Amino acid sequence: MSITSIKRKLDSSRGEVISSASRIEFVLGFRLRRYFFPKTNNKATILFWNVIHSPFLNFDNKISIYKSIPYFQRLKNYPKIKKSLRFVQMLRNRVAHWELDEKESTLEDIVIFTLVGKYRKITINDSLINNFKKHVNFLLKKFGYSR
Questions:
Q1: pLDDT tens-digit series, residues 127-142
Q2: Beta partners for 121?
Q3: Order of strands across the sheet with 120-124?
Q4: pTM above 0.85, yes or no
């Protein structure tokens, strides 16, 4: 097994995670916009493109806003939505910023790590990616989108 194959698979997994997480961030932002402006108008468009979907609010900020709104807190699936949002955010951040451990990785179990703060690692494998996909599909469904 070559390190090139492992890097290719990691790149593919990173692409899938980052792309899906970006979609969830966009959909969450649009859900927030709809909370403040249920109907699309000029003010709703300005709010979305100039505030919510801008460099001023990152994924964590959007999740925090979502969590702070009592309307969302009363929804039946709120705890699951919150958990899924944090899982998607966590995995996105890790695959985007952590490094490949070439010595511990195999094609089936790719190990990435960080030395920031303290040494931590995570194994990227089919089980983790499938779990991630379940969270993404759940969120898309709950926010009114299909995959």
A1: 999 999 999 999 999 9
A2: 113
A3: 99-100, 110-114, 120-124
A4: yes
